[in-house]
Amino acid sequence: MNNFQYNAQLKFNYTREVLIFKGLTHVLVAVSLYASLFQSELSTDIFNIIAIAFGSLLPDIDISTSKLGRYNLFAPFMKHRGRMHTFITMLFISALLYVLDSNLGLCVAFGYGIHLIMDTLTPMGIMWLYPVKMNYYSLARKHNYRKLEPLIIVLCSAFLLAKYKEIIIYGFLFFGILKVSKKSIFNKRWVRF
């Protein structure tokens, strides 16, 4: 590998890393927007939050290292920000889920749409007009708003903690209990034969 190829590879790895929001950020922004826009009972919120979180992670199923992409056998053969990151795919998937349950379809569409809008804030952008045009559209040609990601995570987490503190506290307790029991079950020094 010559010096030019090495520099090109470094630049490709750097841009690939910089142009992708984390799954956590997609989920937090989508759920925070839902929580701020809609007021409903806590019992329906849990189902909606899970559906919105799923929808906000779904477009990245084309990356084998993403939360959902790990379970996609075809992810290595898919292009990131290809067909999965299009408005028409969002409509198709949401319509299929709407047939099963109208609320599920709308919540997944909400999360999916927020993901697409967030990816439009990166220099790479997405193909909003696919299949009519194969052009990538971005609101951040020169600036990358991913640098604001830590601030976005903190603000959304604080908002959700204030709104859903009971759910979050019970979640931490539940996962804390699982962590303790996992340690006691799977740690060799705790198990005696």
Characterize the biggest β-sheet: none
**Dominant shape:** globular
SSE class: mainly alpha
Average the pLDDT over all residues and give the rounded result.
Answer: 76
Helix content: 55-70%
Q: Which residues sit in consecutive blocks of at least 5 with pLDDT less than 50? A: 1-19, 178-193
Strand content: under 5%
> What is the CA-atom radius of gyration, in angstroms?
20 Å
Strands, count = 0
SSE string, helix = H, strand = E? HHHHHHH
For the terminal residues, how far apart are their CA atoms?
54 Å
Number of helices: 7
Domains (count): 1
Oligomer: single chain
What is the topology?
Elements: H1 3-18, H2 23-37, H3 42-57, H4 87-100, H5 102-120, H6 149-163, H7 165-186
Helix pairs in contact: 2-3, 2-5, 2-6, 3-5, 4-5
Structure report:
This protein is mostly helical and 193 residues long. It has one domain (3-165). The chain has helices at 3-18, 23-37, 42-57, 87-100, 102-120, 149-163, 165-186. Helix 2 crosses helix 5 (102-120), helix 2 crosses helix 6 and helix 4 runs antiparallel to helix 5. The N and C termini lie far apart (54 Å). The relative contact order is 0.12. Residues 1-19 and 178-193 have low confidence and may be disordered.
